[in-house]
Amino acid sequence: MASSAYSNRRRRRRKQPRPPAVVPFNPAANRVRILLVWGLLVLSLVAIAGRLAWLQLAQGDSLSSLAQQQRLTSPVERQVRHSIVDRQGNVIAVDRVVYTLYAHPQLFDLSIPEMAATLSPLLESPESNLISQFSQQPTGIRLADGLPEATVDRLRALRLNGLELHPQQQRFYPQQQLFAPIVGFVNFDGQPQAGLEIAYQDQLALTPAEAVSPAETETTLDTYGPPAPGSSTEAAVNDKASPGGDRSVDQPNKNTESNTASSELDSTASLRLTLDSRLQRTAQQELQAVVDRHNAKRGTVMVMEAQTGEMLALASVPTYDPNQYFKTDPEALKTWAVSDLYEPGSTFKPINIAIALEAGLISPDEVVNDSGQMQFGEWKIRNHDYATAGGRGPISITDVLKYSSNVGMVRIMQKMPAADYFTWLQRLSLDRPTGIDLPAEATAQMKDREQFVRSRVESATTAFGQGFSLSPIKMVQLLGTLANGGKLVTPHVVSGMVTEADNEVWAPDRPQPKTVFSPETTQQVLTMMEAVVSEGTGDAAKLSGYRIGGKTGTAQKATVSGGYGRGRVTSFVGILPIESPQYVVLAVIDEPQGDDAYGSTVAAPLVKKVIEALVVLEGVPPSAAATP
Amino acid sequence: MNIAQLVPWIDPTVGQWSAEARWLRWLTFVWLGSGLLILFSASYAVSVTEHGYGLHYVMVQLLWVAIGLVIFNRIVHTSLDRLIQGSGIVLLVLVGLVSLTLVPSLGVTVNGATRWLPLGPFMIQPSELLKPCLVLQGARLFGRWPQLTWPSRLTWLGIFVAILALILLQPNLSTAAICGLTLWLIALAAGLPYLYLLLTAGGGLLTATVSVSLKTYQRQRIVSFLDPWADPGNQGYQLVQSLLAVGSGGFWGQGFGLSQQKLYSLPIQYTDFIFSVFAEEFGFVGCLVLLTVLGVYASLALLVALRLKQPLHRLVAVGAMVLLVGQALLNMGVATGLLPTTGLPFPLLSYGGSSMVASLATAALLVRAAREINLDMPVPLRRRWFKTGPQESLPL
C-alpha cells in the first residue's frame, strides 16, 4: 500500500504538474458530489412520480377501460338461438361453442415431434401430418376447426405453450339427417337458411348480441310476447341446470352470465315440435330402405294426429346432414313433401266417395256398373287391371275402392254435375295451402272452373285422382278429414315455446278447423277402406290385431310435354284404428323402378312398418273385434 | 437470550447503534415485510396454477429471507474495513461462478438468457450476488483513487470492465447496466474529475449503442419501448400490460389482492413486473407512499454518507444507496414505460433468492456504514470490542 502510494505520488510529480491536493480529501467537494448523486436519485424519483401521476390520474380511466375491454374480448356468445326439441324434449338443434385451434411453433416449450406426439391423439390427426403443419410457418397455423368443449378441456389441462384456442358459436344438430328437411339449418354466419330455422326466426333468435352491453342489460328484447306471470321466475330458478346436458358447459366469465341474466327465460326456453324422434327415426330408416330397394327418386312418409293436425313424423328422402350443409345438393335442402306437387291417383278416391256420400248422390250399399273401360272423346279411361280382369260388371261402392276401379269411380262422380263437383273440391280448399308451419308450401294445381265444367274428361280423371296435383302434406290434410269426422285441420310440426319446467309460454295461433264432411259419411268411407286392407289391394298393410283402413295409389306422372309417361308415383294411406280413428299415415314414393312397383307393393309395406312402430310408441291398444 | 439470538432479525446490540443505523435497519425491515405482502398478492394466483397451492413462491422467498437475514446480521457486525478486504476474494469466487454460467452444460437458460446456476432444488444468479461485492470494491478503488498509480487504476478499471462484459455475455444487459451505473455514481461521489466521468459515460453509451445495433432483439425492445401500442400483442405486450395494470390502479387502487392484470395478462408479475401489481392494487396513493419510503431511505443513506469521515466508508454508503434505491427506481421506470423493458428485479419485493440475499447484504452494508459513524471517532478501542463481541454470539 504504502509503496504504491509513494510511487504514485512520485509518478504524478513527474508527469502531472497540477496540484495533487485538488482531488483527494476535500470534504466539502466530496459532500457536493454525494449530494449530486442523491440529487440524481431524487430527480428520477420525482420523474417516476410524475409519470405515475400521468398514468394513474390522467390516463387512469382510459387505461383501466382498455384493461377491462381486454378481459372482455374472449367471452363468446354461448347461445344466440333457442334450442329446438321434439315432443319428448329430445334435442334437435342446439347452440354450442366450438373452438378453432391455432399453433405457434415459435412459442413451443416442447420440440416439434414431442408436440405432435402429444396432440396427435387429441386431434385425431397423424403425427407426421402435424409435424409437417408445424414446419409451415413459425406462427399462426390453423390446426383444427370445430373442436368440441370436451377436447378443449383436455387440451387446456395439458398446459402447453404455443397453442391458441378461438371459441365460436355454432348451431349443432345432434340427430344429423333425421330432421334436416324440416328443421333446416343455420349457416356459419348465424343466418337461418332453411326449414323451421327460417320460419320461426323471430321466435328462435335471442336478443342480438351486439345490442347488449353490461350497462343496458335491462332492455332485452322479448322475442315471444309477454310470458305468463310466474313462469319467468320459474325459468330463472331453473337457469343453472340445463336440458340434456348439452348446454351444461361452464360459464367461466362473469360477464356472460350478467349479459344473459335478464334474458334467462329466453335462453332456456326451447321450441318444441310435435314430432317424435323415435317414430321419425323408424319412418326415416324404413323409407330410406324402400327408396333404396326400388331405386326411387324420392319419397316421404308422414304420420299425422288426425284430431289436432300434429305431425308425429315427417320423414323424407333425400335428406342431408345440417351440420355439414355445405356438402349438400341444394335440391335436398327443401321438404319436398311440402314444396312439391304430385298427382295423387287412387289415394284420392276415398275423398271422392266421401263427397258423393255427403252430397247424397250415392248410398253405401249402392251398386255401379264397372265396364272396365270408358271412352271420353279421344280419351280412353280403363282400369289398371283391365288387361287381366276385364269388366267386372255391377259392383258395390266398397268393391270400387277395394279393386281401385277407375271406371267405377267415374260412374259415381258422374252422378254429380261438374260444376257442383268443382264447388265441392273448392269446399275442401283443394286450391289453398294447408297452412303448415314450414316455409315454401306449394299450392295445389287444378283446372280452372270453366275448363273443369266444359270438358267432361276433367271431372272423370279427377274422380280417380289424376289431372290435378297437390302436395303430399295437402293430401294428408284431406285424408285427415276421413279420420277425424270431417274436419280440415291444419297440419303442423311446431307445438310451441316451452320453458325448462315444461310450461308452454307461447303457442302459434291456428285457424279453427272447417268441417267438410259429417261423421256418418267419414265412418262409412272408413268401413270401405278397412275392406281395402282386409281383403283388397291394401292387403300388404294388414297388421294382426288392429283395424286399419287404407287405400293404395299408383299414379302416372305427367311429362314435361303434357302427356303421361312411364314414371309413376306410388302411394298408400293408412288410417287407424278404425273403431276410433286417430292417425293418418301416408307414404309417397316417387318414381320407384321395376315392373312390380305399385302402391300395394311399394308404399303399403312401408306404411305397415311405420304403423307397427306407431302403435308401440303411442300405446295404441289392439282392436277387440279385429280380424286377425 | 440464546434462543433469541438464533432468530436472525433479533439483535440485542441494536440499542447501542447510531440513530441512522437503527432507522435504516427498521426501514429495511419495513421494506422487506411490505415486499413479502406484495409478493404474496402478486404470486398467489400464478402459484396456484403452476404448483396447485398459492404460497409456493412466498415460502421459497421466506427461506431466502432467512438466509439473507443471517448474512445481514453477519455483515452488520463486521467492520467495513474487514468487509472491503474480504470482498475481494468473494468477488473473485462470484466472477468465477458468473463465468461458469457461460459453460453450456452448467448454465440454466430461462427466457433466452443464461444467468442461473443450479444449486440443489434452487437456482442462484451469481451476477446478483456480485453486486454488493462490486460496491465494496468500487468504493475501495475510487476512495483511494488519488493514492493509486495509473497502472493499478487501469488494472482495476480493466477488472471491472471485464466483469461487466462477462455479465453482458450472459446476456444480462440490465444487471450490467445497474452495476456500471453504480460504479459510475461511486466514482462521481468519490470526486473523480468530470472529464473522466464524462468519457466513461460516453464509452458506456457507445457500447450500448453498438450492442443495440448489433442485436436485433435489443433493437426491437427499444422500438417497442418508444411506441408499445404499435404492436401490443407481441413486441409491446409486456409493457402494454404493465401500463394497463399501473393505469388501472387509478388514485386509490383496486385494493390489496384485487389486481386483475396479475391474473391472466401481466407476464412475470411476481418478479420483474411486481411493481405494476403493486401500482394496480394500491393506486397513486400507494405509489407515492412507496416513493416516499425510497426517498427517505435515500436521504438517510445520504445523511450517513455525509456524516462518515472515511472516504471509503462514505462511498460504500453511496454505493449501497444507489444499488438499492437506484435499482428500485430503474425497475419502476421499466414498469411505467420510462425505460426500455429489461429484466431487473425490484429489491426486496421481487421473487428471487439471489436478488433477496444481495439486496439484504447491500442494505446491511448501509446499516454497517451507519454504525461506523460513531465508531469513526474513537477509533481503535471500540472497534476491537465490536469485532469480537457479536461474533461469538452468532451461530454461524
Keywords:
heterodimer; A: 628 residues; alpha+beta; Beta-lactamase; 7-stranded mixed beta sheet; 5-stranded antiparallel beta sheet; 18 strands; disordered N terminus; B: 396 residues; mainly alpha; 3-stranded antiparallel beta sheet; 15 helices; disordered C terminus
Would you kindly provide a written description of the structure presented here, covering whatever features stand out?
- The complex is a heterodimer of chains A (628) and B (396).
- Chain A contains 24 helices and 18 strands.
- By secondary structure, chain A is of the alpha+beta class.
- Chain A has two domains: 97-173 and 215-272, no CATH class; 280-617, 3-Layer(aba) Sandwich (Beta-lactamase), CATH 3.40.710.10.
- In chain A, strand 13 (494-498) and strand 14 (504-506) form a beta hairpin.
- Chain A is elongated and about 140 Å long.
- Helix content of chain B is 72%, strand content 3%.
- Chain B is built from 15 helices and three strands.
- Chain B has a three-stranded antiparallel sheet with strand order 1-2-3, with helices on one face.
- In chain B, helix 6 runs antiparallel to helix 7, helix 7 runs antiparallel to helix 13 (311-335) and helix 12 runs antiparallel to helix 13.
- The longest helix of chain B is centred in the C-terminal third of the chain and has 34 residues, at 274-307.
- Chains A and B meet through helix 1, helix 2 and helix 3 of A and helix 7, helix 10, helix 12 and helix 13 of B.
Brief sketch in words of this structure:
The complex is a heterodimer of chains A (628) and B (396). Chain A is of the alpha+beta class and 628 residues long.
Give the overall shape of chain A, derived from the CA principal axes.
elongated
Supply the number of helical segments of chain A: 24
The shape of chain B, in one word, is: globular
Strand order of the largest sheet of chain B: 1-2-3
Enter the CATH topology name of the largest domain in chain A: Beta-lactamase
